[in-house]
Amino acid sequence: MILSCRDVTVAYDSKIAVDHVSFEVNEGEYICIVGENGSGKSTLLKSILGLVPLKCGSVSFGPEVHRKRLGYLPQQTNIQKDFPASVYEVVLSGCLNRRGLKPFYSKADKEQAMQHMQRLGIGDFKKRSFSALSGGQQQRVLLARALCATDKLLLLDEPVTGLDPLVTEELYQLIEQLNRDLGVTIIMVSHDISSAIRYADKILHINQSLLFYGDTKSYVNTELGKRFLKCS
Hints:
Largest sheet: 6 strands, mixed
Structural class: alpha/beta
Helix content: 25-40%
Order of helices and strands: EEEHEEHHHHHEHEHEEHH
Shape: globular
Oligomer: single chain
Number of strands: 9
Strand order of the largest sheet: 5-6-7-3-8-9
């Protein structure tokens, strides 16, 4: 077990956004969180990261995982798109949490940043401005940054939003390779149900409360899965 959520409940201004959701994730799994708009998908992800307080319940991690060593790719904002830094600086900043009180990045940090950039096909962009890149290139940079923070657990919030179909498919394939080749556990919020069932091991479907959690093949044969696939 790499992650355990027990009765996770989150409220905003007395309105319940996530309602008593419980599930476990095993190391190496690829989980997609799906549901209608406003169903609590992103809020659930943020509760795992500790970015929103729990009304009740608990989030715990396996012995080799620490909340400060999670890789997170949030939904992109215009501020992020215009971030005034080089590609290398953005990727390297993923090492900040594990640097502790050390004032400088280590040689190992710098080597790891370059390794992830090469793996994601952005090694040649090292000195380019992040803001000058295309949307798909920026997402690769942010994914490399998230990898610098972890080799265990990546949490991705709608990573392909706004990308064209070809770039979307390329990014999905990269994420699958990270899961398959590096053994990184993936938890991804997605509105793209057809891709979710193509790539994920398991589907977690919520509408504030948990409606389904299990393997993808079982999900597509449920009434919920059939209805959601038809409407999406």
